[in-house]
Design goal:
Length: 299
């Protein structure tokens, strides 16, 4: 009986093997990274990050501006902006208008909050603040401490300026602001240049430029130690060989650090604008004085 059972079992096994052999080979198994829902979430997150990055690179932007830059519909951009706003990464504000304002309500633009900027790798802020505070206290605090921090800031920014000097000097006089913007962007400042009418009254006067830094890695530190902004503005004057005027800074709550650069041969001052931040140590210099100190300070 046992032999019969064994034979019967062998026949069953054989039939199963024959049937399996006639089946089509199984398709290779592929690792599926995510379900459809997860893929949609990942795609949504990637687009949201692109929206935030575009605001970082270009400064406060309207939904229409973002849609044009990113190739999205305005409705889609608004959905992402709503999510970024709910997360505390973006805030809306009225667009600042320099000069006369037309009729109608001002456009709404969206800017990164401090939390939004933190998401873009602003690290070691506390360490840097502690180090500068120690420098100030070691010098005795008060005015002596402020001067010590200013000396550190000038030394640090002068070193950075020497790195940019070759690229700026190789550019034509009218294109030096653009050359400086490229050098700054390579260091993570997301800098751009916008040509603006000169402060000179003559209609044919050459246009000046606004050098805009849409990202500042040390914004939180400069909030506590404005000597960093002052030293940076001095270095810009030295590199460009002309007096420049700081109009706005991220450290003072503006969306973009903006520096006015007059055209070559134009008047050295620019009209006062809302949010202008005068920089100590630069407003009294003439273009000739600034240009003559450039080689000494950056040499």
């Amino acid at each position: 009986m046992f032999l019969a059972d064994e034979l019967r079992n062998n026949r069953v096994v054989k039939k199963i093997r024959e049937r399996d052999a006639q089946r089509e080979p199984e398709a290779p198994s592929w690792d599926v990274p995510a379900t459809a829902a997860e893929a949609l979430v990942d795609g949504h997150r990637a687009t949201r990050d692109r929206v935030a990055r575009s605001i970082l690179d270009h400064g406060p932007s309207s939904a229409a501006d973002l849609a044009g830059r990113l190739g999205l519909t305005t409705a889609a951009v608004r959905r992402h902006l709503d999510g970024l706003t709910a997360a505390g990464l973006v805030e809306s504000r009225e667009q600042r208008v320099y000069g006369s304002r037309g009729r109608g309500r001002p456009a709404k633009v969206f800017a990164l909050t401090d939390g939004g900027r933190d998401a873009f790798y602003q690290a070691y802020d506390q360490l840097a603040a502690d180090a500068l505070r120690w420098i100030s206290e070691a010098a005795g605090g008060g005015e002596a401490g402020e001067q010590a921090v200013a000396a550190f800031a000038r030394a640090r920014l002068a070193k950075q300026g020497r790195k940019y000097q070759g690229e700026v000097e190789q550019a034509d006089a009218q294109q030096r602001a653009e050359a400086l913007a490229r050098a700054l962007s390579a260091d993570g400042y997301a800098a751009t240049v916008r040509r603006v009418p000169s402060a000179a009254a003559a209609p044919a006067a050459p246009a000046g430029a606004q050098l805009c830094q849409h990202h500042c890695p040390v914004a939180h530190i400069a909030e506590q130690f404005p000597q960093l902004c002052e030293a940076e503005t001095e270095v810009f004057s030295q590199l460009l060989g002309t007096h420049v005027q700081r109009l706005a800074t991220i450290a003072h709550g503006d969306g973009v650090c903006t520096t006015y650069v007059p055209a070559s041969g134009a008047a050295p001052s620019s009209p006062r604008t809302p949010g202008a931040v005068p920089i100590a140590g630069t407003s009294h210099r003439t273009p000739n004085e600034t240009g003559s100190t450039a080689r000494r300070n950056l040499a």
